[in-house]
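Re-running the complex after MR caught last week's input typo. The corrected sequence lines follow. Everything else is unchanged.
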Amino acid sequence: MNTSLLFSLCGVALFLLGLYVALTTTVMLRRILAINIMGNGVFMLFIASAYRRGEDGVLVTDPVPHALVLTGIVVAVSATALALTLVCRLHELSHASHEGPK
Amino acid sequence: MNAPDTDSAVPLLGRLLLAIALIGIALVLGWALWHQANAQTSLTAIVTTELPNSGVTNPVTAVLLNFRAFDTMLELAVLLLVAVTAGMLREHKTAPSSFSDRAVESAFPSPLLLSLARDLTPVMILVSAYLLWVGAKEPGGAFQAGAVLASAGVLAHFSGRPWLSDHQDVRIRALLVLGTGAFLISALAMLGVTGTYFDYPFAWAGAWILAIETAATFSIAAMLYVAFCAVMPSRERP
Amino acid sequence: MSELMTGPALLAWLISLPLLGALASIALKHGGRWPALTVVIVNLGLACLLVASTQSAPLRYALGGWEAPLGIVLYADTLSAMMIGITALVGAVVSWYSLGYFAPGSSSERAFWPLWCLLLTALNTLFLSGDAFNLYVGLEILSLSAVALVTLSSGLEAIQAALRYLLVSLMGSLCYLLGVALLYQAYATLDLALLADVTGDGVLERAALALMVAGLLLKTALFPLHFWLPQAHAGAPAPVSALLSALVLKATFYLILRLWFDTLTEAATYLGALLLGLLGCAAILWGSLQALRAQRLKQLVAYSTVAQIGYLFALFPLLNDPRVADAAFDSVIYFVIAHACAKGAMFLAAGNILTAAGHGRLADLRAANLPSAITLFALAIAGVSLIGLPPTGGFIAKWLLLQSALQVGAWWLAGVVLLGGLLAAAYVFRVLAVCFDVSPPPTSMEASSQRTIVSAGRQWSALILALVALALGFLAAPVLDLFDANLVTD
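Corrected-run output:
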């Protein structure tokens, strides 16, 4: 068991925990959070793959997964923002329809 | 989905089966990873070799802004897409009758918030500029800088002095497209100059990347701020 | 300049141009449609160029001059060129239709053009990119712009459908990305061509393929993962429904095809293909039955999409069989392009009927609600292609499928396909029956039955797509020659 493997396994566990909640919950906000946790699990797996020992045993970190994760985070932030905007809009519309037209 | 306030409509048996299935997947993935635990593959060597040709000394920035600049351009397009959609949904909104408007309208900004905004905003702008500058050498960069700048905008919004009153304003539109536009125009310009899309001439690469990052910072701040404003009530509307 | 537009740089232009159009139409407060329309037309030209230039050899372009595995490589063979071509064609016709559909200057109209340009950017990226992570970013632009386009309807139901579509898409993308992460962990490369060389049939590759395909299946809406589709496709504005059904689903299907038959070939098993085939058969039957039961016109058309996606996957066991793989590939590509045209035409025609009648309840629609014979004609031709009757593109696709199924003795598959054709005939005639129903509408409808004029552009654009579906029936040999020119199937 090395550090990279530990982080990889944690990443997989996070992904699956997020998936479980996303599939079972009916609360929108919780589902969005769960999907974010799934994403973080994947990012953790990427980060773990950056952690390598070179041939001479020296620790080297691969910058490519770091860059991928940075891109992934921005994409995840954008998607979350869109989801939250839609939830707010849904909330307003369902309130408006409950209160009836003014 | 139909009942927003009760959790889990899935019956217990369903959840149990799902949990078993997921544990099964976990075991398979764990086993697969276990066998790859000693894989020594990485792109470190090739990045290190090409780093002197990239124009920056921070390898992550080199990957983001040069080797995989195409990814970063599309990433900014995603952010732009969300900002445009949020702006559109805001236009659809019937202004003051909505639920969230009334909830926040009653809270007048406290004096504490006002002085916080006054004192913190210059610091935030400085931090943002520093993050942008340092990105070429150390961790930092356009997104971090843009996020700090956007949060200064959020603070201004909360203290009752929003930076923008009309998100249809042509300056805001220009800011929104600035980041993606800088990437795209420079990529196409390079196609004309060096004959290769996104291929920065070596002597100019550093300065070029800093210019693109600066444009991206302002653009990211604007996009995040517009997305934020779209779900917040505006105080200036009658 | 002409040298820069031809050759491999063409691939970069195909992605940059729609993005440029999106930026221009966002920057312009009014008249955002003009840059978008320009882009759509130029894109059609570029797509034709691409189809022509991939005939001799596949094109390859390393962005920024950085070769894989460091950089991102764009790649186009005849399959990508066909997809780009059909996307450009359907996209151009739908753009023409949209000019008459959205009220000029409305907030929906102003948001439609940039979002459609971004969708086109994403589609072209997915067809051209040879980098697994870049494809993820492309997938996200695709889903987010598709979701945003659904919200143009702005009703409660549309927002609900859009939110569900968004969350499902995000889960699909993350499943795909987990697969990419596994592959990177083992091989430290994201380039699909390099991965194809190094991957074998280990547990890791199988798990990665399963995750990536599962995520994409969720987005492609293969039964039983289609639950989000009917609401989203039926709730969107008509031109958006046409784009989603005709193009967006095809893009994720194309990726599955690439992963399964190009990149992770050794990890792909016959058992997996058989499973996809069975799910495809189930989708054909279930989608058709639901279309028969649908209450509303657009719902019917959306369920028909569920069924038609089934045909694409029903071909998977045949694609894996070396005896008939070539014919099955021809059939797949024909299903994709014929369905894109026919379903596009059908949704556009349905949009015309909805505008003219003011509602979409099948039980209350009468011949008097039809805008004109042009729309009726479009609907009929598109319907015939969906059923798979000669002389349409749908017939050629089905004929190739049946031929190869019988050649390998897959009787069950042939049976399902024939049954699916009968069911399709039943639901298409449900729509056509409406068009010939001259009885007076129910009394409650009388008040609201004033006719809205549907512009000629909207009617002719629907008909043009339908006529393309018809022409595909006559032009099977030349179209398939374009596709077979230098395809490497192994």
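None of the earlier attempt is carried over here. The mean pLDDT of chain C is 89. Chain C touches chain A at residues 133, 136-137, 140, 144, 147-148, 151, 155-156, 159-160, 162-163, 166-167, 170-171, 174, 177-178, 181-182, 184-185, 188 (CB under 8 Å).
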